[in-house]
């Protein structure tokens, strides 16, 4: 799996990509949210760069045989933890969590795989209070931090 510098836009985008694939399907409503909220800009990337990070992430998962489609989340717990560890800046963590919550909820239901990613991020990043704040907020993703 590729590595990115800690707190880089690519490291943050890869966590977003994980949320995108966590339910086994990248839906149109998720793609529309990425565009309408200009998630690429929020993360400090161009739109093509965000797509490239997502493509590379999927390539890496396939190449390293890390996909486990029989599990609720297609990526094992250790890999999820390693990806989350690449972001340790508190403000960036809140931003990424806000984006991931919006992505998980955009289709009207949070799939089990998406829940696994969100719960792991909240626990590893100690953002329990932030998660509760996000659930009651109507703030756009770009302003969630």
What is the gist of this entry?
With 145 residues, the chain is an all-alpha fold. The chain is built from eight helices and no strands.
Largest sheet: number of strands, sense, barrel closure: none
**In CATH terms, what is the architecture?**
Orthogonal Bundle
Q: Which radius of gyration do the C-alpha atoms yield? A: 14 Å
Uncertain runs: 138-145
If you average the pLDDT, what whole number results? 85
Q: Please give the domain count.
A: 1
Write the layout of secondary structure elements.
Layout: H1 9-21, H2 28-36, H3 39-43, H4 47-63, H5 77-85, H6 90-105, H7 112-125, H8 128-135
Helix pairs in contact: 1-4, 1-6, 1-7, 5-7, 6-7, 6-8
Provide structural commentary:
The chain is an all-alpha fold and 145 residues long. It has one domain: TerB-like, CATH 1.10.3680. Helices cover 63% and strands 0% of the residues. The termini are far apart.
Features:
mainly alpha; 145 residues; 8 helices; TerB-like
